[in-house]
Amino acid sequence: MQSQTGELTYQKVDTNNLRLALDIQHRIWPGEGVDEDYLEKPLHPEDNSNASWLVYYQGRLVGLTGVFTFDPDEAGYDNGESVWMDWFAILPEFRRRHFGRQVLQDTINYCRQLGTHKFFRIDTTYFPGRPAVSLYDQVIPLREEYTAEDTPAKKQNYLIYSCSLGDYPIKPWDNRLLDIGDESEGGTIL
């Protein structure tokens, strides 16, 4: 993955730096578990639709981003049309410096360059004043409430964001099942 502005550099998460990515996740989301699929990503470096990156600015680690797709036997699968944002965070000491916007735009551009999916999507929780939601509202054109299932009490107010990765009209998610359930999952913190 490359930065559109050249200010940021990205290092793909692999078996050598996975611990660093997990440390960021634990720091940003203490107490959240890590999905088994996330731990499998570094074992399949050829899979560019299921990958994560450490984000650096002038050699200093500033955050984490990633993408994933659903398998055909999972809720959320849409015939391979969508690629989803995975763990996305900017470390607290680097927030409010526009890194979040740049990382989000670089992630979307990466997905466009893949040329394998029509839509980029994000599922996230909403609470008043959440910076990530404000960023998504500015960058991603379609916001939908997700109410297809009862989500855990702490994760009410789910949102789905969608944008086109090409010359396709944006296809709403239309509240299709994601099977969020009680599983631990990533989030977004800017």
Please specify the SSE layout and strand pairing.
Layout: E1 8-12, H1 18-28, H2 36-40, E2 51-57, E3 60-68, E4 82-90, H3 99-114, E5 119-125, H4 131-139, E6 142-146, E7 158-164, E8 188-189
Parallel strand pairs: 4-5, 4-8
Antiparallel strand pairs: 1-2, 2-3, 3-4, 5-7, 6-7
Mass-distribution shape:
globular
% residues in beta strands? 25-35%
Give the tally of β-strands: 8
> How many helical elements?
4
- At CATH level 2, the architecture is 3-Layer(aba) Sandwich
Average pLDDT rating: 88
Q: Which residues form runs of ≥5 with pLDDT under 50?
A: 182-190
What does this structure look like?
This protein has 190 residues and is of the alpha+beta class. The protein has one domain (8-189): Aminopeptidase (3-Layer(aba) Sandwich). It is built from four helices and eight strands, in the order βααβββαβαβββ. The chain has helices at 18-28, 36-40, 99-114, 131-139, and strands at residues 8-12, 51-57, 60-68, 82-90, 119-125, 142-146, 158-164, 188-189. α3 (99-114) links the parallel β4 (82-90) and β5. Mean pLDDT is 88; it is low at 182-190.
